[in-house]
Amino acid sequence: MSSAGNSAARESILRSIRTHLAASVPFDAREAAVHHDQPPSLNAEIPPAEFTDAASLAELFKQNLELVDGHCIIAADEADVVRALTRIIAGLQQTKLRARRIAVSDAPLVQRLIQLTDLDIDELGVTPSAADLFAFDVGITTVQAAIAETGTLVLDTAAERHRLASLVPPVHIAIVESSQIFQTLGETLRELQKGTELSPTITFVTGPSRTADIELTLAIGVHGPQELYVIILK
After folding, report:
1. Vertex 49, ends 45 and 54: CA angle to 5°?
2. How far is 182 from 83, CA to CA, in rounded Å?
3. Cys-Cys crosslink for 65: which of 53, 70, 74, 114, Cβ 3.0 to 4.6 Å?
4. Distance CA 87, CA 85 (A)
5. pLDDT digits (tens, 9 = 90+) for 37-52
6. Residue 204, strand partner residues
């Protein structure tokens, strides 16, 4: 078909679309009168439900994390966190995951809390090398933020040496302060950006690692931890 023929065909199609759009206007107005106070805007955003206090955000985060097979404990204070760490690791020691070699990040809070546990372990390593980390059973870190509406952890490597400890061992235990939980991704990124530029390496973690092959067979723990535990410190 010639370029002139293409132009004529395109104009015919556009003319038909305009005609049908014009014909639909009376019906659009009638539908709007019945179902809406005013015709809806295609660009209008549906506002999310508001969770303004730390307690409700913590509960929302817990609910969404557990939907993706993560485990979440809300602790009242640091002593409660120590009890939770003890209970989690002692329970894992009764499984094939062993939990005998523990790697922790360089966060002072993590190092202090793990020292307060009364656990029988073979080794405690503070930010082990990448090669050594493959021999550890559990990695314990804090995080820099969490997203309640998706149950997602946000790890900023500029603030803490924790990326490998959170990804390599079969089990990751993360400690989150309730003040670090935000409702949406947008709120989280705005908070992380306050007063500084975002780190070039930010890791988002939502539940245990999972992947599917070409036959859609789901596998857990192929590219990261098989188990994720989050302890929220009020």
Report:
1. 135
2. 26
3. 70
4. 5
5. 444 444 444 345 555 6
6. 154
Burial class (CB in 10 A: 0-12, 13-18, 19+), 109: middle
pLDDT tens profile 133-183: 999 999 999 999 999 999 999 999 888 989 899 999 999 999 999 999 999
Domains of the chain, CATH where assigned: 1-44 (no CATH), 54-233 (3.40.50.10420)
Beta strand pairing call for 210-212 and 218-220? antiparallel
Q: How far apart are CA 178 and CA 66, in angstroms?
A: 17
The residue ranges of DSSP E strands in 134-198, in sequence order, are 138-142, 145-147, 152-156, 171-177, 181-182
Backbone phi and psi for residue 183, each to the nearest 5 degrees, phi listed first: -70, -45
Residues 6+ apart with CB under 8 A from 70: 151, 206, 207, 208, 228, 229, 230
- DSSP β-ladder status, 123-126 and 152-156: unpaired
